[in-house]
Amino acid sequence: MNATPSIEKKSICIQVNGTTQQRWVEPRTTLVDFLRDDLGLTGTHVGCEHGVCGACTVMLNDEPVRSCCMFAVQADEMTVTTVEGLAHERGVMTRIQDAFCEKHALQCGYCTPGMLMACHALVSDNPHPTEAQVRDAISSNICRCTGYQQIVDAVLYATQPEGK
Amino acid sequence: MKAAPFDYIRAESLSHALAALHEHGGEAKLIAGGQSLVPMMAMRLARPACLVDINRLDSLKNIEVSSHSVKLGAGVRQRDLEFHPQLASHLPLIKQGIQWVGHEQTRNRGTVGGSLVHADPSAELALVAAVLGAEFTLTSSQDGLRKLKAADFFLGPMFTAVGETEALTDIEWPVWTGPRVGTCFEETAIRKGDFAMASAACQIQTQTDGRVTRISFGLGGVDGTPLTFPELASQLVGQTINPDTAKQVAHQAAQQSQPGSDMHATGAYRKHLAEVLLTRALLDAYAQTSCSLTG
Amino acid sequence: MRQAPFRFIGKHRRAVEHKRFVVGKGRYAADIQLPGMLHVALVASPYASAKIKAIDATQALAMQGVHAVLTGEELRQHIDAMLPGVDAPQVTRYPLAFDVTRYAGEWVAAVVADSRALAEDAAELVQVDYETLPAVIDPDEALRPGATLVHPAHGTNVIFHRKFVWGPVDEDFAKCDHALSYRVSWARNATVPIETFAVACQWQDSTGILDVWASIQMPKFPDQMAKALRLSGNAVRVHFDVDVGGSYGVKRGLKHSVLVGYLAKKLGRPVRLVEDRLENMRGGDMQGPDRVFDVTLGFQNNGVIQSMRMKAVDDIGAYSGRSPLQLGKPVGAINGPYRIQSVEYDAMAVMTNKTPQEAVRGFGQAPTNYAIETGIDKVSRFLNMDRIELRRINLIGKDEFPYLIPSGTHYDSGDYDAVMTKALNTAGYDELVKERDRLRAEGQLAGIGISTCLEPSGGNSSFEPLFNPKNETTTWMDSCLVRVDLSGAVTALMGTSSSGQAHETLVSTVVGEVLQREPDSIRVLHADSLNALPSNSPVGSRMAIMLGGAAAGAAKKIKHKLLQLAAHNLNTPIEQLVYEGGHVQSQTQPELKLSWDALVEMAHRKFHKLPEGMEPGLQEKFVWEVPTGGQLPTEDGRVQMYPCHSFESHVVLASIDPGTCKVTVRQYVCGHDCGVMISPDVVHGMTYGGIAHGLGAALMEKFAFSPEGQLLAGTFMDYLLPSSAEVPAITIVDHCTPSPLTEFGQKGSGEAGYLGSPAAIASAVNDALLPMGAKIDYLPMTPQAIWTALNEAKALSNLTS
């Protein structure tokens, strides 16, 4: 067993949901554990810790990434948006969050935050995706409850042209 | 699944990173995107004493496009390569292969160099590098730089020629100039985004009468490293390719592979799959040469 | 029984729970912060079978921040063993192994530290000295005389075996024109929720209460925890308001919870275990049935299937929870939806040195349906009869209900032909055939699959006394308390946790329907185990029936009380009163009326206006036994298993790439009948999800083990969960045959989709392979497996040509 190297903490400063957060963290703390344990933002969930299920998806500099696959120190000076920061106003949901409720696009809610990040990322790049594009965009997020049908329905519902 | 403790250095420059590697002997590892490394550390299969973060080094993110080659810094994000406006025209085989690399979320962080150094036997970029004969530049603080071809870079499963104190800094990918270049990348995995059970990549150039003037192809996921077949390929120069030729060549190539077996696929099935995919890749790439207008 | 039209039942309604989940305010067990909480990591045995010679935790304990290293030796002195659901008292199980370990991944020691990361560091330093022992991995090996015994004290590797004979099987076979035998194998898979099992416990000396927050879906969890920890029942308080991130059967975490409960008590600080994915896959004991069926069907030339012999051998791994009982539940639908007159069922559960099996969605019905449906297709091919036609000949007809099956269950209601026809019509069967043929012309292998499967619902426990006559239990109750407060607002309490089934929505819809009050104004809370009325947890698709029924029962009592109050104060007989939206009015003299608010205030504040003997306030409980329950099985093993019987018919179009052998499911229609749907969105959601589970089981999911007993599929890189790229668009078409046994005609539906999907996909794959003379009778049907099947067919045809 190697000699334990120094576990000196590093200072990091990350913009999370619009607020600057400065903390001291062990290098080995993943971004998802930092968000959940250090910042108390438990909306982002841990499902596998090896980059497959997507439950930990957050926006990093406006792109969806798996937050279990990076250490918090790597996100220093970057911007993170979690599910708690999707809506800009208290009590107001985004169109996609609202559509998830309307179309029953969740059941246990555990994959939902990550799924919402993937959907928001898709729609910000592609405001009117086709069904195939939606399926493709969420294929990196595993859900065991819904079979995906109502999630696809929700995104299409949220992005249908106004008035339809 | 929490990683074992390690120290962390954010490299301010390439020489800073190389100095750190040198200082720590074999105990330090470079991290860029971390999409392969972090899960391995979470499972404690990798336990570097020190991580040297090179993800912010702009000097490793250059993309230089010329008519005869594309030079990519090792730190170029897979996503940036995927959406580069000149990728389709200059490196169509990468354009086709990169969509199979993980998922969009992993491509947002993963780098070209990271995937190549990780050297999974089924890695798409590694296969394309082998087929195109890419050239790898390795640098260290003590020994300067050296260049290797793919065949000398990939040494075995998850094992490359990169030394303990070396960094892969850039990769130069030859561009096939002229018209009538066709490419095809074929892969079969059980789910989208999974490691390939086998993959085949092919690039062909023909003259107007349909005869092959230039050809390179390879197989991934069916041996410790990507396989290329320069001798078999050379036999096709001056020929046309029909289904029988393609099948014959693919069969011979597949027979040369030594695929392992795991819970998903036996070696025998992988060989069969390699033959099927390479047959299709050859035919598809060949068909494309008559559609290709640009060089 | 109430009938349509309903105000709220059956309507589209946004689930109440979603409001918190979409904004990241769910409260899962790993989210709960308790001051001073400590964290657990496990030390697991790497061997399939080994003796523990010594455990040296000195180095681990020397690490700063490490508070304890618990071994099995210490733990077993303070807790009672967890016992199987069958009569096998020698097959004991403890959260931590003592003396020997019986599977690779079994937990040997628990490290408690300031953080999970530290606990993992320390776990690596715990030195366990093992002496490897012979292991038995293959179930056939385990059955051989002289085989290595997993539990020597039990004397055999067979933990349960019984052969049931219902009806004159031998005579019926003698009268049959044909008998067709086949074998199918259901690979070990499970529903693998994205949230692993997590449990936090806190013991207070001052109150003598152990508080438990767990990601739990388990009947009698508080009672079993208390019993194992040698605490009285009222010393354990399980908080059922913890959101559970998916379970679909598997989150039984008793061993995790007993372990953490003990640690919390020992250390006097809150302790939490959140399984990491590695611990969960290998040592979480959440793998499903692993079953080989040998079936013989006896049938006539005209297609009538007269009799069935079914032998089922299930490999339950190294320990037993409720797992052998998963052979028992299918007794309640053993002949599927068919008029099979007699059945012989030989059920055996065998132990091997592998991860233990636990309850999985359907509790054994999905593999059984797969076995039955495979036979139906084989009989049709044998007789050269259309598969749909053969089913029509054998399906129980809509006028035959209640239908008594040979093993003693009455199916309450159904119209199987109608559901199948709806599914076929929605799929556009003729067009589907054309599409199949077009794919074949293009060089693909292509096939259509059909399944018609029972979904028993209601979660009666009859398989417990059926499989263990010493366990004379017949109570399977559930409850609800409904309260109207002084402001007139309604609150309902349920006594169990939810894992995505939207029970709060279910209860508020039901209570709203009965009281005619807006469901969104009705608050539903999860009580804890000390202040809850009895519940048996959402298992066996029971909650729409049982919780729905209890909610309706309590609400009806409230409504009746309001009517009594009004009758008394309006001096009008109750029969002349009309209840509308919570207000009560005289039918004949409309000026005689009392509003909801007035009645509520009366009940709470105006005792002088209450009729003699009426309890003040407005709160009612309803506790009830499962309909048709209350009977022990007969000597020959007949019993009413579940009360209500939902039904599903799947129609699938699949293609197989002839080169890569990869299956693509192209079109998917599911006809579904679960009686009256209280929340259609919820029912549809669970059906879609069940189909996805089934697709995974059919095509890619398997807990594979090496010959040495090492789990090969220990991460999500090898245990493959279908994504939106693998699950096709699914169309559900509904049918409704109300149950005569429930308040609104509802049947249960939590296991929908999973019960019929693997059978349908296997049916499609085999239809696709048929022109090549190939077949595949085991799951999962991976590209490798299909290739093997095609090669076998080729070899066979080379032999014969």
The geometry of chain A reads as: globular
**Would you list the SSEs of chain B in sequence order as H and E?**
EHEHEEEHHHHHHEEHEEEEEEEHHH
Domain count of chain B: the total is 3
Mean pLDDT of chain A, rounded to whole units? 94
Q: Main beta sheet of chain A, described?
A: 5 strands, mixed
Radius of gyration of chain A, in Å, reads 17 Å
Structural class of chain A: alpha+beta
- Sheet with the most strands: spatial strand order of chain B: 4-5-10-6-7
**Low-confidence regions of chain A:** 1-5
The top-level CATH class of the largest domain in chain B is: Alpha Beta
Task: Give the overall average pLDDT of chain B.
Answer: 96
Q: What kind of assembly state do the chains in view correspond to?
A: heterotrimer
**Which strand-content bin applies to the residues of chain B?**
25-35%
Instruction: Provide the β-strand percentage band of chain A.
Output: 15-25%
Radius of gyration from the alpha-carbon trace of chain B, in angstroms: 19 Å
Q: Tell me the total number of β-strands of chain B.
A: 14
What is the CA-CA span between the terminal residues of chain A? 64 Å
Return the CATH architecture of the largest domain in chain B.
2-Layer Sandwich
Largest interface (CB within 8 Å) is between: A-C, 59 and 62 residues
| CATH domain fold name of the largest domain in chain A | Ubiquitin-like (UB roll)
Description:
The complex is a heterotrimer of chains A (164), B (295) and C (801). Helices cover 29% and strands 15% of the residues of chain A. Chain A is built from five helices and five strands, in the order ββαβββαααα. Chain A has helices spanning 31-38, 95-102, 112-125, 131-137, 149-159; strands spanning 10-16, 19-25, 57-60, 63-66, 79-81. The longest helix of chain A is centred in the C-terminal third of the chain and has 14 residues, at 112-125. Mean pLDDT of chain A is 94; it is low at 1-5. Chain B is an alpha+beta fold and 295 residues long. Chain B has twelve helices and 14 strands. Chain B has three domains: 7-53, Uridine Diphospho-n-acetylenolpyruvylglucosamine Reductase, domain 2 (2-Layer Sandwich), CATH 3.30.43.10; 60-174, Uridine Diphospho-n-acetylenolpyruvylglucosamine Reductase, domain 3 (2-Layer Sandwich); 181-289, 2-Layer Sandwich (Enolase-like, domain 1), CATH 3.30.390. In chain B, the strands form four sheets. A five-stranded antiparallel sheet of chain B has the order 4-5-10-6-7. In chain B, strands 11-12-13-14 form a four-stranded antiparallel sheet. The model of chain B has no long low-confidence stretch (mean pLDDT 96). In chain C, the strands form seven sheets. Chain C has a seven-stranded mixed sheet. Chain C is of the alpha+beta class and 801 residues long. Chain C has three domains: 18-25 and 477-625, 2-Layer Sandwich (Aldehyde Oxidoreductase, domain 4); 32-133 and 194-246 and 252-283, Aldehyde Oxidoreductase, domain 3; 291-462 and 633-800, 2-Layer Sandwich (Aldehyde Oxidoreductase, domain 4), CATH 3.30.365. At the A-C interface, α2, α3, α4 and α5 of A face α1, α4 and α18 of C.
